[in-house]
Amino acid sequence: MTPAHTLSTAWILLGVVAGALLAVALPWDSSVLVAAGWVMLAIMVFLVVSSLPLLSIGRAVAKPRVVVALFSLNLVVVPLVAFVLSRVLWQQPELQVGLLLVLLAPGVALSLTTAKQAGGDVESVLGAKPLLLLGQLIVVPLYAIGLTGGVLSFSDLPPTFIVIALVIVVPALCALVLQALARASPSFATLRVTLARATVPSIALAVMVVLWIRVPDHLDEVGELFRLVPLFFSFLVLLAPLGLFVGILASLTFSEKRAIMIVGAGRGGVIMLPIAMALDADTWGLIPLVVITQLAMEILGMMVYRSIVPEIVPSDSSPPR
To answer: Would you say residue 320 lies in a domain?
Structure first.
């Protein structure tokens, strides 16, 4: 997604507010609303994945140092930070598991716009995004099970399989077909650009419907979500210097460092939301609200990152090549 073709991600915050208001003022316990929620989530995934260069994974090979930095950040640094933060919530399993699921998931779309606005080399990280998306579906649940010490178990995962297949994999395959057609046909290329403009509204609508569905059943627990705010804030604060440190170790250029810092701090709540919704609602019903809380915090955090990252990494800091 680029600024020229998308609405500001701040519009997603309006979806959060609208969903919360509808859940409180007009609760609607209906299978129609639930079905609409799943449809919106599938459309959201399709539009988000359509913005990724699924046919250009070869880009990642062209800049191996960026790929190493990106994977080191997401597979080593972020899990350590997420694990430490999750210890604060050891007495509240839903919050702990939700925090781990959303923080362990690499960001795949929303942070790219911020990285470009901050002068980051977005092209250097785009090629690795499809790999991160695939890894997210496989590695994140395994990491979450391990880091929770068994609070989340393999027996909790089967309900997510059909959702991963129908709400994530099928829309992703449709996005792949669209990109292949867009390469061969100018009309499909125009269609892809047009659809990109609907990405942010689709996320906002999906978030609104999820809140409308889940909040009425958890009104007494909504206050517990405020415990997550300082933890998600701490994550954003910590990832800036840690991302910079990884970029320095990998000898990246200033623009690549900026991209790694921002993309590393961005998380994959958009893709994790359907998975969170698929978990047993009686046991893990609060997790989708945890994911949305992080998404809202990330949107605010990216606004700050857009301003401070160019100050932290000035354009004259590029190492000699």
So the answer is: no
In this structure, the number of other CB atoms found within 10 A of the CB of residue 181 comes to 14
Helices (H), 166-250: 170-184, 186-196, 199-214, 229-249
Residue 3 · residue 113 · CB < 8 Å: yes
Q: What is the C-alpha to C-alpha distance for residues 181 and 306, in angstroms, rounded to an integer? A: 34
Predicted model pTM? 0.91
Confidence of residue 64 (pLDDT cuts 50, 70, 90): confident
Report whether 58 contacts 248 (CB < 8 A): no
3-state secondary structure of 278: helix
Name the DSSP class of 136: H
Question: What values do phi and psi take at 98, rounded to 5?
Answer: -60, -45
- Report yes or no on 6 lying in a domain: no
The C-alpha R_g of the chain, in whole angstroms, comes to 19
- The answer to whether residue 110 sits within a structural domain is yes
Q: Which domain holds residue 34?
A: 11-313
Q: Has residue 278 been placed in a domain?
A: yes
Distance CA(300)–CA(18), nearest Å, equals 17
pLDDT 10s digits, 115-171: 888 888 887 787 777 778 887 788 888 899 999 888 998 889 888 999 999 999 999
Q: How many domains in the chain?
A: 1
* Residue 45 to residue 260: CA distance in whole angstroms: 23
The answer to whether the CB of 288 falls within 8 A of the CB of 218 is: no
Closest to 176 measured CA to CA, from 41, 2, 60, 55 = 55
The residues with which 106 forms a beta bridge, in sequence order, are 267
CATH of the domain at 111: 1.20.1530.20
More confident residue, 316 or 291: 291
- Residue 46, both tokens: 């399709």
- Taking the C-alpha atoms of residue 243 and residue 258, their distance in angstroms, rounded to an integer, is 9
